[in-house]
Amino acid sequence: MDNVLYSIWLSDVCGAGSRWAVTLLREFGSAEEVYRASEEDVRERIPADASRIWQRIADKRLDRAEEALAFAEKYHVTVLTSADPRYPKSLLTLRDYPVVLFAVGELPDFDRIFPVAVIGTRKMSPYGREASYKLGSGLAAGGATVVSGLALGCDGMAMAGALEAGGKTIGVIGTGIDVAYPPEHRDLMRSVVKNGVILTEYLPGTPPAGANFPKRNRIISGLCPATVVVEADDRSGALITARHALYQGRDLYAVPGRIDDEGAAGTNRLLRDGAETITSASDLLRRYEFLYPHIITLASLRRSEKAGELGAEETAGKMHVSSRGEKRFYGQSVYGGVKKPRGVKKTEEPAGMPAEEKPAAKKPEQPFPAPAVIDFDLLGETEKRVYALMTPDVPVLPDELAARGVGLSDVMSALTVLEIAGAVEGGAGGYYLRRSGDGFDLPEDEKEE
Prior knowledge:
- By secondary structure, the chain is an alpha/beta fold.
- Helix content is 38%, strand content 10%.
- The protein has helices spanning 2-14, 19-28, 31-36, 39-45, 54-57, 63-74, 126-141, 154-164, 186-195, 212-223, 238-247, 265-272, 281-288, 298-306, 312-319, 381-389, 398-402, 408-421; strands at residues 78-81, 100-105, 115-119, 145-148, 169-172, 196-200, 226-229, 251-254, 276-277, 424-426, 432-434.
- Strands 1-2-6-5-4-3-7-8-9 form a 9-stranded mixed beta sheet, sandwiched between helices. Strands 10-11 form a two-stranded antiparallel sheet.
- A hairpin with a 5-residue loop joins β10 and β11 (432-434).
- α8 (154-164) crosses α15 (312-319) and α13 packs antiparallel against α14 (298-306).
- The longest helix has 16 residues, at 126-141.
- It is globular.
- The N and C termini lie far apart (46 Å).
- The model is unreliable at 326-350, 352-373 and 437-449 (pLDDT under 50).
């Protein structure tokens, strides 16, 4: 229990997605040893240009970690640390793996399942709805575990299809385990809890914030050997998960769309750039049947081809799947539901928690001050510009940076300097990732507009 408490503390003080937390765990062996380490010990194990990180570690208050642990015990939330044998080993291959995971539902044996991420736009078309449903239900019928972010649109539709087929599911959220977001999918989240598990690295009570979701997306792709993007325009958040999959060396698939459909521009571009085409669940299952023979059999392939008999629209209405585009709607919204009545609060009872035991809402504390990891005065203007062109936690190719106004040779030189400085990291597929969560940032007046 002590290790769990100190792991929650370490995750909290360093922040979600922090590579420093992982580095400190590897250096000291356990979160408890990090907690008990002196300032001198921490400084010895952290580069001089990141010396202010000790200020976070020096904060030995355990009240937030104790509250989170008490909440978990009260509401039967499982807390996994990286030392727990139940922790998904696939995540341990990430440089920024979650130090802790909060889970509600039935934990699978991650070593025995075949998890597949099925994601897409929040504003799905009828085509995207049908494709998400068929893939979700077909993969589940074939024995795969469907993973998504439970977002509006394709994510929720794929999850609903998997549940309708009687399959197992994993939802990865970017809020506290007690926060239903989006609120329209509260019923869907409860169904996932009954037929799978919901995971998050964020402490209970953490509200939704834009910076949370790119970090959450690395967990979705990190759990899965395969990620499928059903439908996405050029600005869809699903493309961030796709980039994480490539950065992590996972397989990426996409469903083709019409060439004149702006809503499919993102998926069509993925296919142009090398993602593999997929048009049915059995397409994907057959590619992995020799890696997962205990799951994918001839019988399961036949089941996958017959799944989805209820229909996408009926399942959407039954499980209250919503899509972005119709404001003030909830539940069955775009499928004939009713408008959200006035007076309904945005914050409702926690997803998966007993209705009669609602935890008191707490105002989130201010985040810890960010440490200065490097002196940007030591970098040249090109390095600063390239860094400013990168979005935190979103993998990017050098060619894409060059297309934004910097010569490719300058981009490559700058990335080399930034990688040596620890500001960016190179991954699989030639992608680079700008670090965040560790306080490495440009002064406000030097950021790109």
